[in-house]
Amino acid sequence: MTSAPLVHLVDDDDAVRDALGVMFGARGFRVRAYASATQCLAGLGRRPTGCLVADLRLPDMNALALLASLRARGSSLPAVVITAAAGAPLAVEAMAAGASDLLEKPFDDEALLVSVRRALATTRGGKAREAETRAVLQRFAALGEAEREVLAGIAQGRPSPEIAAALGLELRAVELHRANIMAKANVATLVELVRMSAIASAATRAPTPSRRRSNPRGAAAA
């Protein structure tokens, strides 16, 4: 029998922690709740499984520092970071720290569940992860050259005026390209666009397995 997926919930607000714990429990998740990053690190152990859901601002260290501590331990635990003010620069920083997603408050339960399930799917790899990567690459394939250049700036967390100056474009042109990129990528926020860009970058950096050459017919065996 497969055990229910596990969520490690970190939030110093008792009411939020309790409410999210009840919500996850009602949706079939097991929940371990912590009031601080220090408690979380002590409770996770060396090889934690499941998904981390952490508020960005915690009393002892922020969620990105918590992720850095986990990565230093060699843990690849997927994580969803919750914040009151998300944006492209923070999204870039969160993805670089190893977050699977960045979710801006206020959010509905379904949005958080989608993020957590997607993060858990990355740990399983296989068809779900491959399908998401293919979908991202297919959407980005529709981008024109100028849109790709603007996307590169967005993926670096650069604001539109800075992108415009770097590319020698009018600010209005950059804003128009950004709107077209988001429409073609079918995303509503820059955070989601940055997440998709990270997936595409990882896919293009991944080494392609080389096929082993077979011996020509009639060649002597080694």
Alpha-beta classification: alpha/beta
Number of strands: 5
The CATH class designation of the largest domain is Alpha Beta
> In the residues, how many domains can be counted?
2
The largest pleated sheet is described as:
5 strands, parallel
Encode the helix/strand succession as letters. EHEHEHEHEHHHHHH
Domain Response regulatory: 6-120
Keywords: DNA-binding, Phosphoprotein
Domain HTH luxR-type: 136-201
Organism: Methylosinus trichosporium (strain ATCC 35070 / NCIMB 11131 / UNIQEM 75 / OB3b)
Topology:
Layout: E1 6-10, H1 14-26, E2 30-34, H2 37-44, E3 51-55, H3 63-72, E4 79-83, H4 88-97, E5 101-104, H5 109-124, H6 126-140, H7 145-155, H8 160-167, H9 171-185, H10 190-205
Helix pairs in contact: 4-10, 6-10, 7-8, 7-9, 7-10, 8-9
Please provide a written account of the structure:
This protein has a five-stranded parallel β-sheet, with helices on both faces. 55% of the residues lie in helices and 11% in strands. The protein contains ten helices and five strands, in the order βαβαβαβαβαααααα. The chain has 222 residues and is an alpha/beta fold. It is globular, with a radius of gyration of 21 Å. It has helices at residues 14-26, 37-44, 63-72, 88-97, 109-124, 126-140, 145-155, 160-167, 171-185, 190-205; strands at residues 6-10, 30-34, 51-55, 79-83, 101-104. The protein folds into two domains: 6-124, Rossmann fold (3-Layer(aba) Sandwich), CATH 3.40.50; 129-205, Arc Repressor Mutant, subunit A (Orthogonal Bundle). Helix 3 links the parallel strand 3 and strand 4. Helix 4 (88-97) packs parallel to helix 10, helix 6 (126-140) crosses helix 10 and helix 7 packs across helix 10.
